[in-house]
Amino acid sequence: MKPNIKIAADIIIFAITDLTLKILLIKRKYQPFAGLWAIPGGFVEENESLEDAARRELREETGLTDIYLEQLYTFGDPNRDPRGRVISISYFAVVAEAKSVKGGTDAAEAQWFPVSDLPYLAFDHQRIVLYAIERLRNKLEYTTVGFSLLGEKFTLTQLQQVYEAVFNKSLDKRNFRRKVLQLKVLEPLKEWKREGLARPARYYKFSETKFEKLKDKGIFFL
Amino acid sequence: MKPNIKIAADIIIFAITDLTLKILLIKRKYQPFAGLWAIPGGFVEENESLEDAARRELREETGLTDIYLEQLYTFGDPNRDPRGRVISISYFAVVAEAKSVKGGTDAAEAQWFPVSDLPYLAFDHQRIVLYAIERLRNKLEYTTVGFSLLGEKFTLTQLQQVYEAVFNKSLDKRNFRRKVLQLKVLEPLKEWKREGLARPARYYKFSETKFEKLKDKGIFFL
DNA sequence: ACAAAAGTGTTCGATATACACCCATGT
DNA sequence: ACATGGGTGTATATCGAACACTTTTGT
């Protein structure tokens, strides 16, 4: 009936390295837009849910599983792809460290770019990326996505650096610490990060159980 | 290539009547789920943008144009439609009054239902509706969608009733009035609603120009 | 005069912001 | 002892929540 509309799942993958918010882009090997940078993605298979497709692409591009993934928006302008009607269901993912990158089949090359310094992008991907950044910033304020940008354990300074990188502004140390500790979702570890010639910093971890209790009380609304 | 995936645009249409938040449902005439209630929608045409498709469906079902419309979420479970793979791109719309309803071609009947008393719905539409309600509630807090549920001019009491209907709880009159007036987006009219045997209530209108100024200052972030 | 709904201020607690010094460690 | 980053408290402004009476009109 409805002829030949194709569905793509495209993913904006965020990570932080060098105190900078970055996204993963791949250089296109084939037409259209061969040689240009684009966000990773691919077509949705016949019997695959949309999120499964996104996770599959994510695994193919980065080798990562078990990471934060959320549907972003669906872009369906009839002319957004010169090959014909392709509707892009975009997702955004948040990974703990900007590594584990391997080239996929459609990709010549994969590389992390600071969001403040992006190359010219294929298709309407610039728009998608800008929207994803906005969403990430909003979500950082009232959810716990921030923790997904860090590993299992982290210091409060590292956590603050995540917020500073995403918002691209510096925060007051005392106010920041009070605020995150008041959330009561962090568990202090009996472990310290000792590095160089300074006072060791305490490690914390995000406590899923504490978080669930607060959700039940309606403090978070995700 | 990718065979025969169909794209539907489905719309949750909100309105308030009798101090109650309602959505428009249509009774399905044909299989599958013939005789069950469903949210209005239809397939996206070949050369139509997604939002255009949603607006077209909306016009066909209600006769309304120029109303608030926003993409909600894309539901694409492989088994959500027994006829085959149908991906539903859902929108939510907000109209000023629960009238202007005519039956569409696929619909036997159209009717407004209070969100607190919905019938059993076809497909995965229950889930979609619940998600839309949640989104509407969130958006009411930090945007101006609320005004879309009212006509051109309205009294502060009517505005409060909108918020009370959506949140399903009563609000303090003094706090509510102070809060909306502080937003500085309402313009008092030299016109009063005189009705029955009580003191007349002043009409206000939403002032687009005042709103734009505030947006420029970053007070709203929509 | 009274019934009905409109309109109006103040107090209090919680939360956000601004701001500067001491502490623990390695070299 | 000193350089490095970790860690801590207080004062002020702002915002949301609770709460009751007077005003204007029609009958």
Characteristics:
homodimer; 222 residues; alpha+beta; Nucleoside Triphosphate Pyrophosphohydrolase; Arc Repressor Mutant, subunit A; 2 domains; seven-stranded mixed beta sheet; three-stranded antiparallel beta sheet; 5 helices; elongated; DNA-binding
Protein architecture, described:
Two copies of one chain form a homodimer. The first copy, chain A, has 222 residues and is of the alpha+beta class. Chain A has two domains: 5-126, Alpha-Beta Complex (Nucleoside Triphosphate Pyrophosphohydrolase); 145-216, Arc Repressor Mutant, subunit A, CATH 1.10.10.10. Helices cover 28% and strands 31% of the residues of chain A. Chain A has five helices and ten strands; from the N terminus they run ββββαβββαβααββα. In chain A, the strands form two sheets. In chain A, strands 1, 2, 3, 4, 5, 6 and 7 form a seven-stranded mixed sheet that branches. The first copy, chain A, has a three-stranded antiparallel sheet with strand order 8-10-9. The first copy, chain A, is elongated, with a radius of gyration of 19 Å. The termini of chain A are far apart. Chain A binds chain B through residues 1-7, 43-50, 71, 73-74, 76-78, 85, 87, 89, 138, 221, and chain B through 1-7, 43-50, 71, 73-74, 76-78, 85, 87, 89, 138, 221.
